[in-house]
């Protein structure tokens, strides 16, 4: 998910995954659910909740991950029943045609990233590092199409292997090789070489976070351990708080994903999914600015529908929600309207499905 300051967003093996806790068939993150983990009323069984339980904590500034609030945020995240947390160090390029990316004052420092990984482990959370590339002059990262592709991939290789080594050195349990780079992701040969270079540094499970309208066009899933999708499918044509209706809207998508997983012989992880607490969020989950009207009930219904629709699916590896609270003085969307579920009905939905019982 691109940050608002840039733009509103637009549209290997099972054994390795079991070790990583990303399988929906066992392990402490993911008790075996059987055919369904819901009772007749649609409530989660007290003993069985399937899939990786994740939350994203993004950074917008150099020192975010070393702020005093970091430990508090992680405790709050863990209290929802979340067992994984995703971090998003970001480099920037000015234009979609540029041939390289660089750090800026909005890039989390390496020391701060190491610090928050350590805090997360201390809090009993597993970690995924999901580096992002964004644009300083506006636009969507999906539109990045460098004029000099060889130069861009060389620069990207330096960027991503830097974080792969940092992840390896700090015991990170899963790593994403890229996020929503649709303008380059059809280049299977160059991406294959990039992934091979990453594996020289990082031996854990790898994914790529494809946008929901991108994942079927990716030629390199065979090189990765799990399919990653940023799951911002529109579910309604008008605002609704009807969780049953939203769950029904997921049905054709569930069927589509089940078939895709079977063809690729890989499980599917929602590397992102989320809803602002604004009226109409289910019509455009990828948008930070659907409306200025409160939509907490719609956000909660959307959380309920996703968790109910995918619970117990043996090919579904879980979800990393976008996102927890913004850091003080950095959010450009008021908390009451933002993606965070914290302090809202959606947090209660998470605790119902994921919380300790």
From TrEMBL:
Please give the coiled-coil regions recorded for this protein. Answer: none
InterPro entries per the record? GH (IPR017853), GH113 (IPR055151)
Query: Where would one find the signal peptide in this protein?
Result: 1-25
Q: Which UniProt keywords apply?
A: Signal
Q: Where is this region: Disordered?
A: 23-61
* Keyword Iron (UniProt): no
The annotated regions of Basic and acidic residues compositional bias extend over 40-49
Extract the Gene3D superfamilies matched here.
Glycosidases (3.20.20.80)
The name on file for this protein is Lipoprotein
């Amino acid at each position: 998910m691109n940050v608002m300051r840039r733009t509103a967003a637009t549209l290997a093996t099972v054994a390795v995954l079991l070790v990583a806790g990303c399988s929906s068939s066992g392990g402490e993150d993911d008790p075996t659910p059987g055919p369904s983990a819901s009772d007749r009323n649609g409530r989660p069984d007290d003993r069985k909740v399937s899939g990786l339980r994740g939350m994203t904590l993004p950074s917008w500034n150099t020192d975010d991950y070393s702020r005093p609030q970091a430990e508090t945020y992680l405790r709050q995240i863990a209290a929802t029943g979340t067992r994984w947390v995703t971090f998003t160090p970001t480099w920037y390029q000015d234009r979609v045609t540029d041939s390289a990316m660089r750090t800026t004052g909005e890039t989390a420092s390496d020391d701060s990233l190491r610090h928050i990984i350590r805090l997360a482990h201390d809090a009993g959370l597993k970690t995924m590092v999901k580096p992002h590339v964004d644009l300083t002059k506006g636009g969507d990262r999906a539109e990045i199409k460098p004029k000099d592709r060889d130069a861009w991939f060389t620069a990207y290789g330096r960027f991503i292997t830097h974080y792969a080594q940092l992840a390896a050195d700090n015991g990170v349990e899963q790593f994403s090789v890229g996020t929503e780079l649709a303008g380059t992701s059809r280049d299977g040969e160059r991406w294959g070489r990039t992934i091979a270079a990453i594996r020289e540094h990082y031996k854990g499970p790898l994914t790529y976070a494809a946008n929901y309208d991108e994942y079927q066009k990716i030629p390199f899933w065979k090189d990765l351990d799990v399919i990653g999708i940023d799951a911002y499918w529109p579910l309604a044509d008008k605002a609704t708080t009807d969780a049953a209706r939203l769950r029904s809207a997921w049905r054709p998508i569930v069927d589509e994903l089940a078939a895709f997983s079977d063809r690729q012989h890989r499980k599917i992880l929602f590397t992102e999914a989320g809803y602002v607490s604004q009226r109409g969020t289910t019509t455009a989950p990828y948008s930070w600015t659907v409306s200025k009207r409160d939509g907490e009930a719609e956000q909660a219904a959307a959380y309920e529908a996703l968790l109910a629709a995918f619970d117990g699916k043996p090919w579904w590896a879980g979800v990393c929600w976008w996102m927890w609270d913004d850091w003080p003085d950095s959010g450009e969307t008021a908390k009451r309207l933002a993606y965070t579920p914290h302090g809202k009905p959606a947090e209660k939905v998470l605790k119902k499905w994921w919380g300790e019982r």
